[in-house]
Amino acid sequence: MEEKLALMIEAAGENSERALAKLISHVEDRKTGWKDIMKTIYAKTGRTCVIGVTGSPGAGKSSLVGEFAKRLGDRGYTIGIIAVDPSSPFSGGAVLGDRIRMRDISTYQNIFIRSMATRGMLGGLCQAARDVVRIMDFAGKDIVIIETVGVGQDEIEVVSAADYVMLVTYPGGGDSVQAIKAGVMEIGDLFVVNKCDREGADIIVSEISAMLDLSTETAAKIPPVIKTSAFTKEGIDELMDILSEFIQKKKKGPHYQKDHVRQEVISILETEMVSIIKERITGNGNMEKELELILSGKSDPYSIADKLMKRFTVIKNVEEKRKGDFQ
Ligand SMILES: Nc1nc2c(ncn2[C@@H]2O[C@H](COP(=O)(O)OP(=O)(O)OP(=O)(O)O)[C@@H](O)[C@H]2O)c(=O)[nH]1
Ligand SMILES: [Mg+2]
Questions:
Q1: Which residue of 11, 63, 122, 301 pairs with 230 in a disulfide if CB–CB is 3.0 to 4.6 A?
Q2: For residue 78, what pLDDT band results from cuts at 50, 70 and 90?
Q3: Whether residue 159 sits in one domain with residue 233
């Protein structure tokens, strides 16, 4: 590894925020040596508690994150926050909103904030978020919080990389319960009905509880549903108790869980496969002749895909021979 990178890793491990930010950018941008960085730091990761926060747009996720991050910070924990900027046009303005609310906590020495764009990271967002979590973990953050807007599959995948997932909704969101129903219910460890200073929070709590009753097999596994207000601070103590319990449990538990590790290896493979397909099999006009065959009626997409797959096998064989040490 380049000496420059080794020094950057060393400095990030010794609490330099500048080095930490640089290291994250290096890996995020997939600059030369990024994978070596990840391989080097891996052994020193797995200690942090990763809390994923998602839910309907405008539910108050950032306000809540700000609130509990500050309280955790007051308890002496070091914290990393990853705000995943939604690229969906429906959530316009969120980026600015996040920054403004986050600014108030940026005075905390022990809270490190990082934004990540979903744009241009199609398919790779999940892995990129995991990498950032891991770098923060390596840098010694006790807790890493990832906030995403739970509208797309990408975002759901991102929070599923967390150890603990908080789903946030609110009264008056109209479709807020609907938004939770849409495939994210299963990943929630905690359901938060925020803005309980407004009318209608109790109704949402009972609706969510009823849904959970129906969809959860054993009563013991039903996740808690709580009411909070980032304004009046109602319910924040209860939220803190629940989070503290999780943090204690995680600290005693194993560094990594098999399911997470499995998911991660698959996700790395997927990302690499997609890039091989894009760059070497179908990229650079490599596929044009085959497309003509389909258009002229001489072939069909299925046969062409089969043929291209063979090309992949050839690439693989050549690389195996070249490396020699491939296992
Ligand atoms: N009444 C009330 N308003 C709140 C509460 N929490 C947040 N808000 C307001 O709701 C709006 C959205 O808050 P955010 O914290 O940005 O919500 P978010 O879920 O992070 O929003 P996105 O990231 O854009 O999806 C802001 O105007 C907040 O001031 C609350 O507990 N009560
Ligand atoms: Mg937000």
A1: 63
A2: very high
A3: yes
CA–CA distance, 84 with 161 (Å, rounded to integer): 13
Number of H-type helices and E-type strands within the chain = 13, 7
- At residue 96, the pLDDT reads 45
Candidates 56, 144, 140, 64; CA nearest to 102 is 64
Give the domain range for residue 104: 46-255
Q: What is the DSSP string of 258-325?
A: HHHHHHHHHHHHHHHHHHHIIIIISTTTTTHHHHHHHHTTS--HHHHHHHHHHHHHHHHHHHHHHHS-
What per-residue confidence (pLDDT) applies to 17? 92
Query: Closest residue (by CA) to atom 21 of ligand 1?
Result: 58
Q: Using only C-alpha atoms, what is the Rg of the chain?
A: 22
Count of structural domains within the chain? 3
Assigned token pair, 311:
């090309």
Query: Percent of the chain scored above 90 by pLDDT?
Result: 46
pTM: 0.84
**Interatomic CA distance for residues 22 and 98, integer angstroms:** 22
Substitution candidate for ligand 1 out of 53, 62, 63 with most atoms within 8 A of CB:
63
Protein residues whose CB sits closer than 6 Å to any atom of ligand 1: 57-63, 91, 94, 97-98, 101, 149, 194-195, 197-198, 229-231
- Among 55-59, 116-120, 150-154, 294-298, the range of highest mean pLDDT: 294-298
CA of 133 to the centre of ligand 1 (A): 24
Instruction: Please report where in the chains the tokens 């807020």 appear, as a residue.
Output: 176
Question: How far from chain centre, in Å, is Cα 315?
Answer: 32
Q: Are 158 and 126 in contact (CB under 8 A)?
A: yes
